[in-house]
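Hi V.,

You were right to ask for the full record rather than a summary. Here it is.
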Amino acid sequence: MRTKICSYAVISAMVGLFSSTLVASVSAAPNQVTLKPLTAGYQIDLRSQPRQTLTFPVVSGNELTINVHSASDALTLKLRLPNGTVVDKQNASQSGVSFEVFNPTTAEEEIFVSPTAMQLIKVQNPSPGSYELQAEGAVTTIVPVQVTTVGSGLRTGIIIGKGEFEVTLGQKVTIAVVVFEQSRPLTNATVQGKVFRIVNDSLVEEVSLSFVDNGQGSDARANDGLYSVSYEPAQTGGYLITANLQGTNSQGLPFEANEGGRLVVNLPDIKLNGVFHDQGVDEDGDGYFDLVKFLFEADGPRGEGTYHMHLYLQASNGNKVDAVGRVSDPVAPLSVNFPAKELKELGTDGPYRLTFVNLAHDERYLNYLENLGDSKAYRLETMERENTLLRPLNADRGVDVDGDGLFDWLEVIFGVDVLISGYYGISATLDLPNQPRNTDLDNTGLTSVYLPRGNHNITLAFSGEKIGRSGQNGPYVLNGVLVYPRFQTRASAWAKQLGTTQPYSYSQFVGSGPGDPKTLLGRLLKQLDALNLNRGLKNSLRVKLLGTQAALEKDKTSADHKIRAFVNEVVAQREKTIPPAEADLLINGGMILVGLLSP
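Predicted structure:
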């Protein structure tokens, strides 16, 4: 029997299709199936008569909801209760009944037959028995009606196939309708169904179905509350499956319910079988992988069009990346490429776990697989990178060229890693942290230095005099580092900041002025300790410097006398036991202290 009937939306509203759920197994327990409260679908045909009635049974429950898919100003509704009382909008509250109007949003208009409004009648704590809905108005269409009873203990659901609403032509589909009262299967129901093929916005009836719960045929187990039937679609396309349930509950009260679901039938196509291969690809021959290609095997006939794949990888640290592959060439392998840049975002070496991949043909979903296995043990250092990389500042030191205890230069050391051998220019600036632009302490560079392929430590020297004159303490920041090739290639690298130095004091550098007495005494002691002098003389001079240091906090006059005594002794021993150059170094430092301590 193939009869063209009303629209897909009308039947969908009647059977409550939009609240049904597809699940995984026809032998599943009720807690594995999404069940809904008792819902029955009906229709009121007003095409020939402006006034019609609809009678339906209701078992006891917490709330009865009647959804009438028609605008309120076009249709007048009344409800006759089991005790004979007729309720309308005017007297509804006296009987615990409410009349409401639901106005759908634009997004919801696709679901409901009426794009303007839907009337809702609600009955609190409904009495069991026969209810009669009376409809009258200037409506000349078929009006869908849904009746839902919440709290009755009865729940229903539908299972189509294995939870995938798409099947292949020639494949039988098992359909099961689930009926439970509380946690117990209800075994006395009669379940009849129909299969409609969706043609544009209309439905063509294909076949009627009789569901059984006797453990025979497609029914896995008798009296388990799952009423089953097997169906094999005859052609590709979309289908709507409906089921009507009738029976009595444990108290002998009659009930009626409807279920429904969709089914799509396609031609045979390929499916992933879980076999994959991966390989690193060096596209430019520089010895680094530009990408990692994952190739997948599939079973079945491959058709024309574009195949889409979505692959997820997970690293040992838990980080994840994903990529999409598209293949239109019918002979090209199914593949997904991960650029080296994306793999580096994982932050650790491989192997990487293939946690999920799915396959689609044009807009048609085919299948998916989880936890396929691990890739090869790729190392991030083998992935494509920039031709020139800058490594952070790894060392710094002050350099005292003339041994006066002050740094003439501040050397900083950082790394440069180049893929292309050649001559490079290097420049950088030294600055204070968190300072505005154009406040550099110094800038320097190397005009041309040969760097073979590999890692190199680069040393740049900044003027100690400029640092000393700045009057600013460290730490100092290595800013604006630029490495550029002195040949024709794209191998430049620039870093806004490569790190900070130790917390130097500006007074440690030349050009900082006389400085404070404590610092100068410290330098004199270091200079004295470095000289190769007679032990007795060195101890004598050291005692005078330590005495000066001790007197600084209490009596500057006493400190002045002690440092003068130090200078006089050095002058007396100049050319005798102290070489002139070394003596002059000590004398100059001592006289600076005299100038600072004199009144």
